[in-house]
Design goal:
By secondary structure, this protein is mainly α. It has a domain of about 210 residues. About 75% of the residues lie in helices and about 0% in strands. The protein is built from 16 helices and 2 strands. It has a two-stranded antiparallel ribbon.
């Protein structure tokens, strides 16, 4: 048990997180969750959760909402797909090559926008995303535009189960790497900038530099995950870069709890299942999912502004306090949250 606990602590995963991961590994083998369409929803839930981790790295720590996030995701997807279709590059290699243009564009976008503040930086990132989507739509000779680009899949099988374990491994890499960064001195600089940029500047931190680093890393992981998306579905259209896709990730991060990294993943799977069920039952009302996104955002911001992560921390703190009070007969102020 001690070895398992040390491994989990090294990875930045709580015991509850470890149990959740084990559940995700085992649940596809348990009826009725072993049905292909349910496993496909689970794959998409983990993929959205991995995107939420990368998105939260920026929005939760340097307080910049990247409204162009899914454009960087789509850039990685199209890079890998085009390399596979036009040059015959293996999808396994193309997924990693897709990191480079996403990171480079994220770096250039950061240089242009992250000297600005608040909503201005967010809007500029959104405009870059719209421009990238326009290029993808119009450059038909390369991307096939709205006709869709067919690309090879990672595996020859039609089963969704191997893809689930691939995206679970990718999600773990994203989480562990970003968790290590958050725990490092650089992570402390990110938190300081997100809480009070002027105070951070006074302490000797260069806010622009650290914001650009953060933004670039987030976009790099978005490009990598986009490569998986391309070679999971095998078909790409420019709508993968739509702002509504970014809004989905934003909703998941807000419900999960900004600044937690794990909260978005915890919220993503029920969110995807719920969205798919709503689309199935209310197929006559296109766009109803957007109404639900707005509703959930309002409810969380009004009643639970810290999201699931905050509720979990508060509940855990209260439980510890009860144990201390039962053992000692008095309250422990250090455990209050």
């Amino acid at each position: 048990m001690d070895k398992i606990r040390r491994v989990l602590d090294w990875a930045g995963i709580t015991p509850l997180g470890g149990l959740t991961l084990l559940l995700l590994i085992l649940i596809p083998w348990v009826p009725p969750f072993n049905k292909e369409y349910l496993i496909r929803w689970l794959v998409m839930g983990v993929l959205v959760g991995a995107q939420a981790i990368a998105f939260d790295f920026t929005s939760g720590y340097i307080n910049i909402v990247n409204f162009g996030f899914c454009a960087f995701f789509g850039l990685g997807a199209y890079t890998s797909a085009v390399l596979a279709v036009r040059l015959g590059v293996s999808p396994w290699i193309g997924m990693f090559i897709g990191i480079l243009p996403a990171a480079l564009l994220g770096f250039l976008t950061g240089i242009l926008t992250l000297r600005l503040r608040g909503i201005i930086a967010a809007c500029m990132a959104w405009f870059v995303g719209l421009a990238l989507m326009g290029i993808t739509t119009k450059w038909v000779k390369l991307t096939e535009g709205p006709l869709s680009l067919s690309c090879p899949t990672l595996l020859k099988t039609t089963s969704n189960l191997p893809y689930l374990y691939i995206i679970l491994a990718m999600m773990l890499v994203v989480y562990i790497v970003l968790k290590w960064v958050v725990r490092s001195p650089m992570g402390l600089a990110f938190k300081a900038i997100g809480q009070n940029m002027e105070a951070a500047r006074t302490s000797g931190i260069n806010p622009v530099r650290y914001r650009i680093i953060n933004f670039t890393v987030s976009c790099a992981f978005a490009g990598w995950l986009g490569g998986f998306y391309a070679h999971y579905y095998g078909v790409l259209m420019p709508d993968v870069m739509l702002t509504t896709k970014t809004v989905e990730v934003l909703v998941v991060v807000t419900i999960g709890g900004r600044g937690s990294l794990w909260g978005g993943l915890f919220a993503a799977i029920p969110f995807v299942y719920g969205t798919e069920l709503v689309r199935s039952f209310f197929s006559k009302y296109p766009g109803i999912n957007l109404v639900l996104y707005g509703f959930f955002l309002l409810m969380v911001m009004i009643y639970y502004p810290g999201g699931i992560a905050r509720v979990y921390q508060k509940t855990l703190g209260q439980s510890k306090n009860r144990v201390v009070r039962w053992l000692t007969g008095r309250d422990n102020p250090s455990l209050r949250i």
